[in-house]
TrEMBL record:
GO molecular function: peptidoglycan glycosyltransferase activity; RNA binding
Organism this protein belongs to: Potamilus streckersoni
Pfam families: PUA (PF01472)
KW Cell membrane (keyword) present: yes
Protein's UniProt name: PUA domain-containing protein
Database matches in InterPro entries: Glycosyltr_51/Transpeptidase (IPR050396), Lysozyme-like_dom_sf (IPR023346), PUA (IPR002478), PUA-like_sf (IPR015947), PUA_sf (IPR036974)
Residue ranges of the region described as Disordered: 73-93
Length: 191
């Protein structure tokens, strides 16, 4: 073991913290004896003067001492914790783009789900409206329910059967005033 350069006297709270692998804070240091430089070995004693450990100082001022430097064998853990902190800091710097990407992916996912639901709703509406539309063949060959005409054996009309009497005429045979009147009564915004 290396030669010790000084002693650190600590209170009961600091002793308990060190025994539980916690950091040594400046408030827990009662007294420092000797001239201690960074990297020097120090003896750690409790308030009764009983030796509880040996550690390595991190600097001339013990307010900067850390648990990893004061607990025997814990120097390696301290280096690991500093390295873990550097890795954590680097991860936090990288995590902002990751969080942004995560938020964008969530927005994209929910937009896709919402778009799918809207699309399914529109498809259902179109199908329902399409069921109510008349068949294309019915539009090509309309059934006007014309009256049934009964003739005698000489070809003379005897009787007409109808619910409503409809007579087919050509478009050219309808007077223009009738066309205008029909349009005016059906849709005043048409003209």
């Amino acid at each position: 073991m290396a030669e010790t350069k000084g002693e650190v006297l600590i209170d009961a709270g600091a002793e308990q913290a060190l025994l539980n692998n916690k950091s040594l804070l400046a408030v827990g240091i009662i007294k420092v004896s000797g001239v201690v430089k960074k990297g020097d070995t120090v003896v750690i004693k409790n308030s009764s003067g009983q030796r509880i450990g040996v550690g390595i100082s991190t600097g001339a001022f013990f307010s900067r001492l850390s648990l990893g430097k004061l607990i025997p064998g814990a120097q390696k853990r301290s280096k690991q914790s500093r390295q873990e902190k550097r890795v954590k800091d680097a991860d936090e710097k990288r995590s902002l783009p990751r969080r942004t990407l995560s938020v964008l992916l969530k927005i994209g996912f929910y937009s896709a789900v919402l778009g799918s639901l809207v699309g399914i709703g529109l498809l259902g509406y179109v199908i329902e409206v399409a069921e109510e539309l008349p068949d294309v063949n019915a539009l090509k060959n309309p059934n006007f329910e014309l009256p049934s005409i009964i003739y005698d054996r000489n070809g003379k009309q005897v009787y007409e059967l109808y619910v409503e009497k409809r007579i087919l005429i050509k478009k050219e045979d309808i007077p223009q005033d009738v066309k205008n009147a029909l349009i005016a009564t059906e849709d005043s915004r048409f003209l």
